[in-house]
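Lab channel / #folding
Pinned by the channel admin:
"Please post every new chain as: sequence first, then the structure tokens as a reply. Keep commentary short and put observations after the output so the thread stays searchable."

First post following the new format, from NK:
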Amino acid sequence: MDFRKGLILMIGVILVLWANGRFTPLVSSIVSHASQKTLFEENIDLNFDGQLEKVSKIQTEHGIMVQVQSGLFLSSKVSFAFLNMDDGFLYDHKSITPVAFVDINQDHQLDLLVSFFHPVERETKVYPLVWDKSQNTLTLFKKED
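Reply from TO:
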């Protein structure tokens, strides 16, 4: 096989992976730090604008990081870190999941319920996270009085 055919084949494989949403996870898994492990990943339209956001729950050497990627080619990224926590699960609509999606603050946008196992307290806890695309923030939800 000559160089041009090999190059065309490689470009074709990359295009097929990209079109099926497999290219970004493949590249990120190749270049990610060895101490990070993706525990959960889902593409979901959090704000009902017709574009999918990628929500990930990642184990790092310091704890768990929750990440939302949005925008063209998932170029906008925001994270929230939970230090010294282990992965956990919660029961959501007849299934067990590490992350559930609900509208916590009635802003017509899905927010995240993230479950963890606290190794010191030896119990599972659920934390609500609110994603704001316009501010590019992911914050812990605090109920207003």
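NK: Residues 1-31 form one domain.
TO: also worth noting, The helical segments are 3-19, 23-31.
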